[in-house]
């Protein structure tokens, strides 16, 4: 990490600069241009699906939002705060449909693996006949399919509405301003970017310190399933600090990009992916347990959902283990030496 | 292992001998005496519970049976085969009650952990009111308590009947013969024990080679839960080779004891314990899934049993991981150098 290895950005990236406000302006303009390009493409292609243009739109929105946050002292504060809020609303709204689709696929793939089946799960619901538990898996798949497809359809409508709203047009106008003229504070030119980026990195390191990494480094610690049957809130509570680190890792990445570091250290990429998997598995586990609370389901269906929930919490634990391994390599400086 | 480290028994044990028939006679007589002593104590104390005398009885029975098997060519074959069959029947019958009690305790402890509870689970069934899932855990605990206590009571009656049967008295008579006069074959004195012990060890090594150890060495491989919802037989099929190694490891240990090796190599003890845990968790997982097939249970109960089943299969996987680690140390020769 930067405070331990001051040469990091030099070694990991192509640009050795610690960055000035002109780099910030260039980065924000690039992302704003990318946002507008994706938006144009998206409007031409039609529906706000999980298409490449929607992903590019969200990708740029996240970067603009994160950069406005990290380098806030260099920017017109009230203007950037407002744009940030609106971008968060937009990317949240656009992300939901894709998230439901991915969650369903993750759960159905897991069910298929657990049922030792080769055919897709929901299609089997009508025909399965080999043992009560297989029927349970098929019914659980059909139930999840119904619930998550409904949620996805709703998210789709919401996204469509959002893209036609005046609120959205205001966001697009804000980004268009950014593409031509970044509203810097008057004294911005006197500052370097590196201290702000280092601040994000320090916050990231602090957040990682609060994680139970020693425990996560022991495989099969069964931590992720502790309180798995307790109440609705319990697993989410233990996941929160990990989700927090995931967001800080992202913020760190965008700050490095603004500084001109083109290749994010590979172990940080691995760590970041592990936390993405952590988030996905945690939400899939929650969806399985929510489906089990559907009234009047068969016991075999509920049983299958219980197995599925535990399987996904197992994945949560595996992701923490993977994060711990990657972070260890980051800390031991391997991130610096690896090309 | 012996074929790789011929000095092993010298290094690990106190007695450097490769053993002759007189060692075999002494070992069998010792175990037979121990069996009769435990039996006397057991009769005096009363019920065939999981008491120390019942455990000592089974412990001696396992050792006699294993030794008769390994050194069969040195013994009167038909006599020892018959005694072996009868000892297997006896220790199986006596073990069952204890096994049900342990399984129930393992499952209730796991449920308590999963429910994030401090109070014992079955007692909560009537009072729990914080969320449907906690009720499910409490009801699952009560169901398992009912089913396994019933099984335990039946096993208790069977064990009582067995201890009063003429079949049992015939076994006791057979062991009494062994305590005074081991029926060796005439040419037994011409043989050393070491080749027979080495043969057991070779079978153990061969059996370990067939295990998917590479996969087991990768934590969170999710192997143990594959086909977890498929049908009743699937998990048992993948467990079988591990159970087989567990039995061979035991046989190896008894053969070493007969040779006069007093301290079994510590990593082999660790490996052996891991496979005990593997067996216990596999059977507990099967009990949870069997309980889920009880007619007319509530969905919340079935859900809790599904989570519990997956949790125990997770333990199965963890035990394989632990075995792999211990076995690696055995193979790298650490078993030899460790005192």
Automatic annotation (TrEMBL), chains A, B:
It comes from the Bacteria. InterPro entries: CHAD_dom, CHAD_dom_sf. Residues 17-332 form the CHAD domain. Residues 1-23 are annotated as: Disordered. Residues 1-10 have a biased composition (Basic and acidic residues). Gene3D superfamilies: CHAD domain. Pfam families: CHAD. This is CHAD domain-containing protein.
């Amino acid at each position: 990490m930067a405070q331990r290895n001051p040469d990091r950005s030099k070694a990991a990236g192509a640009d050795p600069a610690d960055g000035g406000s002109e780099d910030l302006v260039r980065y924000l303009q690039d992302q704003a241009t990318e946002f507008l390009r994706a938006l144009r493409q998206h409007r031409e292609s039609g529906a706000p699906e999980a298409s490449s243009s929607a992903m590019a739109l969200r990708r740029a929105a996240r970067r603009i939002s994160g950069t406005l946050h990290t380098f806030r002292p260099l920017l017109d504060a009230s203007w950037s705060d407002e744009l940030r809020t609106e971008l968060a609303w937009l990317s949240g709204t656009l992300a939901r449909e894709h998230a439901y689709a991915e969650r369903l696929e993750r759960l159905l793939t897991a069910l298929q693996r657990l049922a030792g089946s080769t055919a897709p799960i929901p299609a089997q619901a009508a025909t399965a006949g080999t043992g009560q538990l297989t029927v349970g898996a098929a019914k659980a798949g059909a139930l999840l399919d119904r619930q998550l497809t409904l949620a996805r359809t709703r998210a789709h409508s919401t996204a469509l509405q959002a893209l036609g709203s005046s609120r959205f047009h205001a966001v697009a106008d804000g980004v268009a301003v950014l593409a031509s003229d970044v509203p810097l504070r008057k004294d911005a030119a006197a500052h370097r970017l590196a201290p702000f980026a280092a601040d994000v990195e320090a916050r990231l390191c602090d957040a990682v310190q609060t994680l139970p990494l020693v425990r996560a480094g022991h495989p099969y610690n069964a931590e992720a399933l502790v309180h798995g049957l307790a109440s609705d809130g319990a697993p989410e509570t233990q996941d929160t600090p990990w989700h927090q680190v995931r967001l800080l890792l992202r913020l760190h990445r965008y700050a490095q990009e603004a500084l001109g570091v083109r290749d994010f250290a590979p172990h940080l990429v691995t760590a970041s992916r592990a936390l993405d998997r952590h988030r996905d598995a945690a939400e899939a586990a929650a969806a399985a347990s929510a489906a089990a609370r559907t009234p009047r389901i068969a016991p075999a269906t509920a049983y299958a959902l219980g197995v599925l929930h535990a399987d996904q919490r197992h994945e949560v634990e595996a992701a923490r283990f993977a994060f711990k391994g990657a972070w260890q390599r980051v800390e031991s400086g391997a991130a610096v030496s690896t090309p």
